[in-house]
């Protein structure tokens, strides 16, 4: 499997897809099509199968480092999901512990900052 770095820029209504290793250029109407267009170009140019080539796209729009910023957003979202899962597990554990001590569900909700209905779900999960 061969890996290629691809540079994607905006030109009017088109996305220009440059494959520097092959000194190649193709275009796509939508950014969602850019990777496939690059892989198609690579396969035709190198006489290989499309699935034998992978690409890493670097997106730059008028000096805005979109790839880097989008990567950071993905990392932040993954971290947020991890923290949310950890908070949910801890909320369930605390709700169970408080319920075992006879604390009313409404009070558990107040302690956790959730509605009593959500506290009930946590206690019963």
Short description:
54% of the residues lie in helices and 23% in strands.
How does the major sheet shape up? 4 strands, mixed
Q: What is the rounded distance between the termini?
A: 46 Å
Enter the CATH topology name of the largest domain.
Answer: Double Stranded RNA Binding Domain
Q: Give the uncertain stretches in residue-range form.
A: none
Roughly what is the average pLDDT, rounded to an integer? 95
Q: Name the overall outline.
A: elongated
Question: In oligomeric terms, what are we looking at?
Answer: single chain
Tally of DSSP β-strands: 4
Q: What Rg, in angstroms, do the CA atoms define?
A: 25 Å
User: How many domains make up the coordinates?
Assistant: 2
- Output the helix-strand order: EEEHEHHH
**Strands of the biggest beta sheet: in what spatial order?**
3-2-1-4
CATH class of the largest domain: Alpha Beta
**Total helix count?**
4
Question: What CATH architecture of the largest domain would you give?
Answer: 2-Layer Sandwich
Strand content: 15-25%
Question: What is the percent of helical residues?
Answer: 40-55%
């Amino acid at each position: 499997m061969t890996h290629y770095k691809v540079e994607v820029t905006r030109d009017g209504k088109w996305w220009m897809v440059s494959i520097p290793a092959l000194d190649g250029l193709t275009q796509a109407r939508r950014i969602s099509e850019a990777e496939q267009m690059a892989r198609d170009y690579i396969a035709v140019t190198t006489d290989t199968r499309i699935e034998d080539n992978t690409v890493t796209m670097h997106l730059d729009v008028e000096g805005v480092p979109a790839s880097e910023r989008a990567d950071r957003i993905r990392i932040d979202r993954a971290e947020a999901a991890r923290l949310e899962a950890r908070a949910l597990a801890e909320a369930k554990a605390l709700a169970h512990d408080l319920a075992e001590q006879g604390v009313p569900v409404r009070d558990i909700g107040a302690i956790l900052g959730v509605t009593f209905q959500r506290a009930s779900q946590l206690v019963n999960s």
